[in-house]
């Protein structure tokens, strides 16, 4: 059975991805940090549509909680065969000269270290799976990694730059085993993350500045994630799909 773990699968891009992958027959492990009701809603939507899902609370910035999460998911569904490293955060918009070390380190602890630790735990289970050659990881990065996030969140942009390097490096470490690692780089997508940056309506503000003249949807990102996880993309590894309306 294909088992996908989606970090931050309870809201936004993660929730859309959970529903899409459930439709494709994956058993879906929905990780969340604190919003239990949102996780429960995603599970119920999937079950109603005839899919398989369960939610699992864990703060993935805590290494032991990640280790425990993977063990509990394996006990529930069997070995994880696919991973979507998706959970991420933004902090209040500000310029670099206003940032202190506490904020920058927090950003890296939330957006970078967990992707490594989740991949480490996933790889162990992928090697135990009978579907080993079909296993894949998708890292959700951001267009900010190449745009830079100037005047708003260079710390966040840099954390996503790290994810791009991580994606490339890990893909090369795992290629000979047939485990593929790719990334998506969304631009301005309608989700709640913009409230974390202090500007809930940011997507509407910048929509007209984008070549496609609109923000993107979580479903549009989910479609690309699903393709990169699937055998349809079997010759792609260490690569990225940019979903940023032309930016
Ligand atoms: P979102 O709507 O704010 O949802 C964030 C999800 O991550 C929630 O399910 C949240 O769980 C979970 N989460 C956050 N910290 C966590 C932690 N420490 N442990 C476990 N779960 C945690 O975010 P989104 O916009 O969908 O973003 C998803 C990914 O896309 C992120 O990596 C983000 O950087 C990236 N991205 C988003 C955009 C955009 O415009 N939206 C653009 C580029 C890239 P709780 O609800 O329980 O807290």
TrEMBL record:
Source domain of life: Bacteria
Ketoreductase domain location:
2-182
- Which InterPro entries does UniProt cross-reference here? KR_dom, NAD(P)-bd_dom_sf, Sc_DH/Rdtase_CS, SDR_fam
User: Which GO terms label this protein's molecular function in UniProt?
Assistant: oxidoreductase activity, acting on CH-OH group of donors
In terms of Gene3D superfamilies, this protein maps to: NAD(P)-binding Rossmann-like Domain
Q: Which residues cross the membrane?
A: none
Keywords noted in UniProt: Oxidoreductase
Q: Which family does it belong to?
A: Belongs to the short-chain dehydrogenases/reductases (SDR) family.
Q: What's this protein's name?
A: Ketoreductase domain-containing protein
> What is the native source organism of this protein?
Pseudoalteromonas luteoviolacea S4054
